[in-house]
Amino acid sequence: MATSDRSPLRTVVALVSALGLGGGGLAVGFVLASLAAAVLTFGLGIEISPAAVIVLSLVFVQGVGCAGVAFAYLELRPTVGPKIRSLLGFEGVPGPFDIDADLPDLRAVAVVVGGYVLALGGAFAGSILVTLLQVDTGTNQAAEIGMENPEVLLILIPASILIIGPGEELLFRGVVQGRLREVLGPVAGILLASSVFAGLHWFALTGGSAAGNFVALGILVGPSLVFGAAYELTDNIVVPSLIHGIYNATLFTLLYVVVAFGDQIPDPQNATSAVLALL
């Protein structure tokens, strides 16, 4: 990880670039997924199933968009970065910027377990808060598709660990948090990256009131802080990727159980609402 190098202009540039990288990664993935869907539908005449929609999203948003933009940043920064610094009149050369990925040791495994418990506990506390406030929160689009097509959730459960966690963590912890950290320090880097990550989930929500969706995004900041702190503690992107992936997989598993076995649950409507609040 890079070290703090703060000045007003550097701070503004770091904030703009972090937001642009995070939002840009998701936007690139969304555009590519939409183009792929259009080619399949209108070009080849293939009817896209709900499962195919999820697969396209996983491949292009989390895969190409998030991970691709992260790797592109690492590749282009050594050549593009000096030109931008020269244009802005920045003096000095920043430290090396990299994203370490290693097989977790025992300490890292302990961070994964502890982080998972904290993230999930925070999510359940947030679900209780939503119930107490009685606000109308939106539904995550992937969860909405999964409720209507439970087989999609069986794709999302392993994909959470294999694609969603690694892809999103590479971009938001590895690049966005790392970029903020080198200018603002670790605490501000974690806080701001978590806020950017949670805030961009606004576009993944359907329905709900504005106030309810703000509450939902506020709750998402909690697990995001856990992911960011885990990365800061270990300097190993594998650790937050595992926490994030297992966390998501747990929520999709709970939703699958509620949807698939709702007739055996005493109050399926409330159970479904509780799980959706976590997502």
TrEMBL record:
Keyword Cell wall biogenesis/degradation: no
GO molecular function: endopeptidase activity; metallopeptidase activity
Keyword check for Membrane: yes
Domain CAAX prenyl protease 2/Lysostaphin resistance protein A-like: 153-249
Record field: transmembrane: 12-45, 51-74, 108-132, 152-171, 183-204, 210-230, 242-262
GO biological process entries: CAAX-box protein maturation; proteolysis
Keywords per UniProt: Hydrolase, Membrane, Metalloprotease, Protease, Transmembrane, Transmembrane helix
Protein name stated in the entry: CPBP family intramembrane metalloprotease
Organism: Halosimplex pelagicum
